[in-house]
Amino acid sequence: MAEPFDAVDVIMTKRDGGVLSTSQITWMIDAYTRGVVAEEQMSALLMAIFLNSLSREELNCWTDAMIASGERLDFSALSRPTVDKHSTGGVGDKITLPLSAVVSSFGVAIPQLSGRGLGHTGGTLDKLESIPGWRAELSLDEMTEQLESIGGVICQAGVGLAPADRKLYALRDVTGTVASIPLISSSIMSKKIAEGTSALVLDVKCGSGAFMTGREQAKELATTMVEIGEDHGVHTIALITDMSTPLGLTVGNALEVRESVEVLTGGGPPDVVELTVTLAREMLDAVARVVETHGIPGAGVAPGSAEARTRSEELRQADVAGSLKDGTAMDAWRATISAQGGDPDGEMAWAHHTEQIKADQEGYLTSLDALKVGVAGWRLGAGRARKEDEVQAGAGIQLHAKPGDQVRAGQPLMTLHTDTPEAFARAQEVLEDAWTISPLPPGSTSVVFDKVARDI
Ligand code: URA
Questions:
Q1: Could you tell me which residues are beta bridge partners of residue 355?
Q2: What are the two backbone dihedrals, phi and then psi, of residue 148, each rounded to the nearest 5 degrees?
Q3: Does the annotation mark 235 as catalytic?
Q4: Average pLDDT score over residue span 286-310
Q5: Nearest CA among 401, 395, 328, 414 for reference residue 364
Q6: pLDDT for 199-221, tens place per residue?
Q7: How far is the centre of ligand 1, averaged over its atoms, from the C-alpha of 206 (Å)?
Q8: CA 103, CA 318: separation in Å to the nearest integer?
Q9: Residue 22: C-alpha distances to residues 25, 28, 41, 433 (Å)
Q10: How far apart are CA 51 and CA 205, in angstroms?
Q11: How far apart are CA 230 and CA 235, in angstroms?
């Protein structure tokens, strides 16, 4: 059958700054997925989009076409309301672990479809696989059953969700077109919308360890994703948060799980606790609003009913910080890990070799670069360079000081962990100028910079 469009016309329209029609976009993505549009043609279109962007209408249509390339999950039959969170990725970002436990402890379902790490940012699945027995792959039935009975699920995204994105992402990776706000937004949001959540909280990272290094850009990315979510009927809000320095005091798989467990026992580093509590609050407020306006169809709670109002009020009043202190979130964590075959009390790996890096002068640590720490952790074996590489569960970096802390000359600043000691030299090389020590303390900053929502 003849194709309705010519890829070259589509490319030239965008190259010249024109607007693509709905049918052109729908066809282009479908034809690319079918192998009719060649890789070099899609590469040219991606570069034209990188340079000339997409209008809001084009972007919604691009996102729709990616969603339509695969299956769409539907959790509306659950007796719990659903909410999800997505982070644009950073160094030491283990927040999903305590966060999923906190939010599910209030009777909410969180279908967290996560990925593995590539490059300097860690992947949630790699972290959880440090727990003996834990498995990332669940069937849709297993996932649905766990969402209904426990609420929390963190598992591998199936290949069926937005397969066009998988193909496009691989192409963007080799054509210098990853760092485009419309392409990042549609890539993330197509998967989140296809996943079937009714509310979504985005953690858009900003700083050296993130896609977006500046606040303006991060805000634009956040705004674009919030618009796509709301235009697709998913109540979406975004926080813009600091990724100039690693989150918490650990970078690396088992190290980060241990730190998450500390947070779940009411301790842990203040920035991890602050971000967990803030995101949990936003998720519960977002889902409260959905419950009020749409009810909980799977539980027979009608929109606008007295029960919907009561349930949403309970979610708004939920004592998030209390759930970390009183063990409720820990119970939810243990239930979720056990349900996926993991032993919450199991012994996790420690790396066989460690080396310390010490402060060369006294003063205040004023900066500690997230990207450099992330790259060092990756070189030590915590991350992978290619998709097929294995990660070391015990490898990574323990930080002994964070920006704002006072340090003495000779005091350990960090401990490097690896099973492959030949990696120390390359990790130390990237860490050489990763921090600054100054006589005066830096100003104090919060980990949360800004919030983007449709009606604020
Ligand atoms: N994560 C995604 O899923 N897609 C992007 O384009 C960037 C980050």
A1: 416
A2: -70, -40
A3: no
A4: 95
A5: 401
A6: 999 999 999 999 899 999 999 99
A7: 15
A8: 9
A9: 5, 10, 18, 49
A10: 23
A11: 6
